[in-house]
């Protein structure tokens, strides 16, 4: 049996833990039904509303802290939040559940008669609560916190909280029941004193609790939000309010900066880290900002998937994308952001991770998938991509890889347009499709003698066809353009050209069980495949698997090496740690230090070279 107050009693319930709010909801519903109106005199109602507002406070601070396009330069700890930390903090809101239940018991207990009277406002209560916070909550928390860092108490009750290497607003709620109870006393003592003195009010409860959460989230945000100039102008402020830098020093070094919100108590206790203000100034001035070595230039797929961004909901972005009904009410908000981006946005940083000392970032062009097919939008999109490439070049980025439609042949010739317009680029522009082709080709079993290829005259289709015919594999190339087919066929060695066969109808593949799909297939078109067919894919979006007697491969992807650090979000529908092959192709280009651009047509002779380089660096097929 474990130590008391070291684990949560509802840990085994999973998402069913939210049923603990059931009695409060039932009581509000009963009062509503009895009175015929919203029971504004019910503490249960106010506790539920406060729960919503507290959750919103944590979420908004989390979103702000992870909006790298706003906060990248002022991040205190430059490391990323990985999946291990995300999973450990998954139930961060256990603290909020506990505090809500305790508040409900107090509000409905005969032992606290002062709480029964609902007064909307009393300035005396605000003054008393402030006094009690400074004289009771702050010193009590300080000494309790110092005690948690001593001997067995740390390993039993506090080490779990410090196991998160990078603080986040959600880290503020992550810990053991004992830590949550200490925080409950800290936030509750001023309220208890105000109500005991007959000066409590509903506004005090809302204001005090939300301000408490706001300051906790601010400290844990890992983004310096207080200007060093404020401390220089009014030095005493240093002892009245802590900063994210101040708390991060405590979180990493564990032997200093123990205060709740007021460093005054660290000064009195002799536990202030002497580097707190100097480091805070450095972070605030953005002196620790770093230039990425590699950039993956992506774009938004659609309105629904735009809610999958890392600065949205961590429970979504840390898992492969799927449509979640709970997010549908936010669709109008996401749509409004799409419109806003169309008129007044530029390429922005979405996420990052580290690989072997190199900083890799994902940037996004503020355009959505369907907009790439609007003729009038073509020029503007190319301009956005071009500006991103020029920005990367000016910063000193080594490699920038174009994702999905950003390298569309009809849009910019697979990136050729930008290299031609700017021949002196230092940044290497790559489309990554050489590795995409390699992944698809290495999925095909060695005993296959015939394949059916759709999207056969596209950039990828051409490379796949030319590679396979050299291996003496018959390729049924679906295309109505004899001219384009013959052009590709002439590129093949003379002794291999007869392995390339033009077909114009899906019926031609009725006996072929290996389909390589580069063009979307409807259910009617899929029916021509014989039972047991496997569909390899390089079409975006992926085809829907209508055939139960066939198997469907995923989009070409590779798993990043095991030594990747700070990766905490999934790339669209990819599993954790897996990226699209074109992303991986750019990574290999960067790791190898190749100094050539990879744009336009795929060099078939380099497919095996790139594949071997990927495996050498620890990337594996997903």
TrEMBL record:
Q: Name one GO cellular component term.
A: endoplasmic reticulum membrane
**Record-level Gene Ontology MF annotations:** aldehyde oxygenase (deformylating) activity
**Locations listed in the record:** Endoplasmic reticulum membrane
Specify the enzyme's EC class, one word.
lyase
Q: How does it sit in the membrane?
A: Multi-pass membrane protein
GO terms, biological process: response to stress
User: Very-long-chain aldehyde decarbonylase CER1-like C-terminal domain: which residues?
Assistant: 451-621
**Pfam families from the UniProt entry:** CER1-like_C, FA_hydroxylase
Catalyzed reactions: a long-chain fatty aldehyde + 2 NADPH + O2 + H(+) = a long-chain alkane + formate + 2 NADP(+) + H2O
Q: What is its EC number?
A: 4.1.99.5
Q: Which UniProt keywords apply?
A: Endoplasmic reticulum, Lyase, Membrane, NADP, Transmembrane, Transmembrane helix
Any transmembrane segments, and where? 47-71, 180-206
User: Superkingdom of this entry's organism?
Assistant: Eukaryota
Entry keyword Transferase: no
Q: Does the keyword Glycoprotein apply?
A: no
Domain Fatty acid hydroxylase, first and last residues per copy: 131-271
Under the heading InterPro entries, the entry gives: CER1-like_C, Fatty_acid_hydroxylase, NAD(P)-bd_dom_sf, Sterol_Desaturase_Related
Similarity comment text for this entry:
Belongs to the sterol desaturase family.
The name on file for this protein is: aldehyde oxygenase (deformylating)
Please name the source species.
Answer: Urochloa decumbens
């Amino acid at each position: 049996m474990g130590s008391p107050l070291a684990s949560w009693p509802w840990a085994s319930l999973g998402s069913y833990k939210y049923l603990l709010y059931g009695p409060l909801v039932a009581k509000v519903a009963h009062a509503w039904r009895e009175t015929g109106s919203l029971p504004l005199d019910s503490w249960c109602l106010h506790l539920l509303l406060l729960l919503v507002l507290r959750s919103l406070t944590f979420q908004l601070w989390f979103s702000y802290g992870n909006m790298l396009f706003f906060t990248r330069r002022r991040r205190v700890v430059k490391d990323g939040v990985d999946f291990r930390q995300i999973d450990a903090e998954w139930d961060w809101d256990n603290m909020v559940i506990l505090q809500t239940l305790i508040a409900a018991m107090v509000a409905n207990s005969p032992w606290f008669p002062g709480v029964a009277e609902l007064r909307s406002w009393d300035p005396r209560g605000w003054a008393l609560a402030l006094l009690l916070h400074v004289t009771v909550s702050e010193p009590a928390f300080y000494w309790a916190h110092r005690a948690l860092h001593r001997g067995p108490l740390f390993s039993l009750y506090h080490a779990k909280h410090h196991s998160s290497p990078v603080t986040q607003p959600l880290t503020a709620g992550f810990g053991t029941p004992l830590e949550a109870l200490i925080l409950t006393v800290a936030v509750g003592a001023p309220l208890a004193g105000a109500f005991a003195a007959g000066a409590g009010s509903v506004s005090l409860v809302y204001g005090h609790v939300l301000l408490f959460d706001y300051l906790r989230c601010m400290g844990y945000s890992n983004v310096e939000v207080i200007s060093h100039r404020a401390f220089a102008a009014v030095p005493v402020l240093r002892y009245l309010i802590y900063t994210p830098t101040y708390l991060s020093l405590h979180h990493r070094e564990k032997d200093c900066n123990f205060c709740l919100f007021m460093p005054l108590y660290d000064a009195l206790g002799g536990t202030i880290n002497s580097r707190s203000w100097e480091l805070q100034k450095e972070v605030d001035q953005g002196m620790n900002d770093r230039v990425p070595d590699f950039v993956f230039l992506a774009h938004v797929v659609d309105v629904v998937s735009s809610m999958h961004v890392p600065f949205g909901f961590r429970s979504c972005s840390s898992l492969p994308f799927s449509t979640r009904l709970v997010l549908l009410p936010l669709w109008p908000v996401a749509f409004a952001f799409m419109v806003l981006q169309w008129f007044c946005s530029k390429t922005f940083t979405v996420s990052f991770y580290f690989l072997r000392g190199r900083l890799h970032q994902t940037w996004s062009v503020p355009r959505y998938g369907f907009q790439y097919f609007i003729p009038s939008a073509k020029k503007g999109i190319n301009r956005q991509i071009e500006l991103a490439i020029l920005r990367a070049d000016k910063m000193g980025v080594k490699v920038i890889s174009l994702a999905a439609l950003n390298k569309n042949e009809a849009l910019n010739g697979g990136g050729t347009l930008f290299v031609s317009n700017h021949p002196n680029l230092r940044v290497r522009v790559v489309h990554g499709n050489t590795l995409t082709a390699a992944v698809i080709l290495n999925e095909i079993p060695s005993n296959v003698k015939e394949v059916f290829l759709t999207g056969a005259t596209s950039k990828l289709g051409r490379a796949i066809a030319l590679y396979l015919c050299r291996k003496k594999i018959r390729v049924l190339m679906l295309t109505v353009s004899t001219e384009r087919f013959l052009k590709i066929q002439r590129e093949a060695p003379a002794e291999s050209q007869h392995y390339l066969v033009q077909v114009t109808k899906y019926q031609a593949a009725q006996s072929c069980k290996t389909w390589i799909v580069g063009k979307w297939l409807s259910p009617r078109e899929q029916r021509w495949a014989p039972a047991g067919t496997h569909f390899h894919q390089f079409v975006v979006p992926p085809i829907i698997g209508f055939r139960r007697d066939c198997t469907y491969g995923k989009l070409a992807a590779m798993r990043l090496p095991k030594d990747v650090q700070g990766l905490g979000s999934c790339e669209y529908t990819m599993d954790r740690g897996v990226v699209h092959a074109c992303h991986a192709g750019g990574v290999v280009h960067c790791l190898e230090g190749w100094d050539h651009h990879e744009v336009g047509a795929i060099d078939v002779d380099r497919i095996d070279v790139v594949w071997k380089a990927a495996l050498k660096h620890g990337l594996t097929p997903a």
